[in-house]
Amino acid sequence: MSKSLFRKKSLEAIARDAEQGIDDGHGGKGLRRVLSVRDLTFMGIAAVVGAGIFSTIGTAASNGGPGISLLFVLTAVTCGFSALCYAEFASRVPISGSAYTYAYVSFGEIIAWIIGWALILEYAIGNIVVAISWSSYFNHLLEAGGIHLPGWLTIDPDTARVAYETTQQQLSSGVAMTPNMQSVITAYETAPVIAGHRIFVNFPAFIIIVLITWLTYVGIKESKKGANFMVIFKIAVVLFVIVFGFIYAKPSYWSPFLPNGFEGVLKGVSAVFYAYIGFDAISTTAEECKDPKRDLPRGMIYSLVICTVLYILVALALTGMVHYSELNVNDPLAYVFERVGQEWISYIIAVSAVVATTSVLLVFALGQPRIWMSMSRDGLLPKAFARVHPRYQTPHFSTVVTGFLVAIPSLFMQSSLMTDLTSIGTLFAFVLVSGGVLMLPRLDNAGRSGFKLPYVNGRFIVPVLYALFLYLFIDRIQADLTNPAASLQEALFLVYVLLAGVITVLTVVKRYSLIPVLGMLCCAYLLIEIPAVSWEWFFVWMAIGLVIYFSYGYWKSRLAPKL
């Protein structure tokens, strides 16, 4: 059974499918090839420049000060290692499925299933977070225009309850009533009651998911046009913010550059990494690219470079306009312009935030159905997931299912419960894709066209980096080893130290290429820094996925022995 769990798809069969097109078995004509390198670059920017630059950048800057710009560089380099590995795979495996398909080629079926299941956390579950964020920005715009939706239609039940209880405690302690506290009380006490329970739903989040699902259902061409328009608009606004930001900046706010040391900068790791999530989503559109071997690698790398430059400039503009300690707010871009007396610019930023998060929703809504379509083609999911609409040439059933799974939870869920799970799913994919590249040379030694990952022998560099890591973290390692009641977080760190040691030894023995090894090690470290409670939910999620695989996919796989 162990051999059948790791059965692999061949590069030859994948290349043949890519050239000839794949029959979905339901009369579908296959997907429409309409995406150019410009479209892919725009889609990458559409996925990356979203809630991160409009919200989480403030939290990171409040800890690290102007030095947070260095963290954007470091995170971009980490993501860049993975991006280069994605580019290598996209060139060799030009077919829908992203990291799922790549893992199928390099590691085998069970690992492919695990990564495909994890990617649901990045695309489908991640879109719940973005939809809730979109709803918040949209409600602010409505209120600025004098339109006020009932409070119970704009918030989830848990957030409403906690806000109401907190407000009551503040009033009991003698705090004076504020307009915000009054709105919390009004929303809670005017909410409809059914069977003794007050009803709260995030209706705007639900509606935007329905609209995005419809757009992705009717066609990639329409989705491409929508994404391109939104990217042009939000880049224009970001450049506008950068220019005006440097006009109002005070150089004195940039000194000291590292007010809390590098430790303060590192506190923003999770917030900054979240700002980069999404550039890999364009790899799911391989079958809709005009020239996937050439254009997919370029699109991923171009979008990552452009977004990094924009992030660095925005971080410097923000920390130059106000003191870094003031930036721990939900809407830092709007806040800094209000502080310098330019409220009209903050309104433009609010509009841009709505557009930016809409484009993220669009790209993620494109990604998830195409992964399910690939899994269905391989027999791991029912055939319905692979159906391509005869008119729109989109995976319509998968698109509708994705929309349903995102829209319903967005009515009731808290975004904080989903953000870390999204990061785990993404980083998990990055680690496996980076490791998978190391398997490819043994699978395909023939000459080929397309992007080729530069080879740098890591046998000397990686041991030095590992030794430096041990030196810097020796106190933490000793403390965790001697702690008889080590927590899950501490156990994960020790597991990382062990695995990093194993990878270092293998790199020396097998002369692994430096870039994919650094991709694995850097992304794995970011993984273990995610709170332990999110890991517990991740293990539950994986257990559910394995139950589905062994009850259906293992037996129905196209690679399963025919009885």
Descriptive overview:
This is Amino acid permease. The chain crosses the membrane at residues 40-61, 67-89, 110-134, 199-220, 227-249, 261-279, 300-324, 344-367, 397-415, 421-440, 460-479, 491-509, 514-532, 538-555. Keywords: Membrane, Transmembrane, Transmembrane helix, Transport. Residues 514-557 form the Cationic amino acid transporter C-terminal domain. The chain is mainly alpha-helical and 563 residues long. The chain folds into 3 domains: 2-145 and 204-443, Amino acid/polyamine transporter I (Up-down Bundle), CATH 1.20.1740; 157-200, no CATH class; 461-556, no CATH class. It has helices at 2-5, 11-20, 37-48, 51-64, 68-92, 99-106, 109-144, 157-172, 179-189, 203-218, 220-248, 261-266, 269-274, 292-321, 332-339, 343-377, 396-412, 416-437, 440-443, 461-472, 474-481, 488-510, 514-528, 532-556; strands at residues 193-194, 197-198. Strand 1 and strand 2 form a beta hairpin. Helix 6 packs parallel to helix 18 and helix 7 (109-144) crosses helix 10. The radius of gyration is 24 Å and the shape is globular.
The CATH superfamily of the largest domain turns out to be Amino acid/polyamine transporter I
Write down the overall mean pLDDT.
81
Strand content: under 5%
End-to-end C-alpha gap? 15 Å
Structural class of the secondary structure composition? mainly alpha
* Order of adjacent strands in the largest pleated sheet: 1-2
Number of strands: 2
Protein name: Amino acid permease
Transmembrane segments: 40-61, 67-89, 110-134, 199-220, 227-249, 261-279, 300-324, 344-367, 397-415, 421-440, 460-479, 491-509, 514-532, 538-555
GO cellular component, one term: membrane
GO molecular function, one term: amino acid transmembrane transporter activity
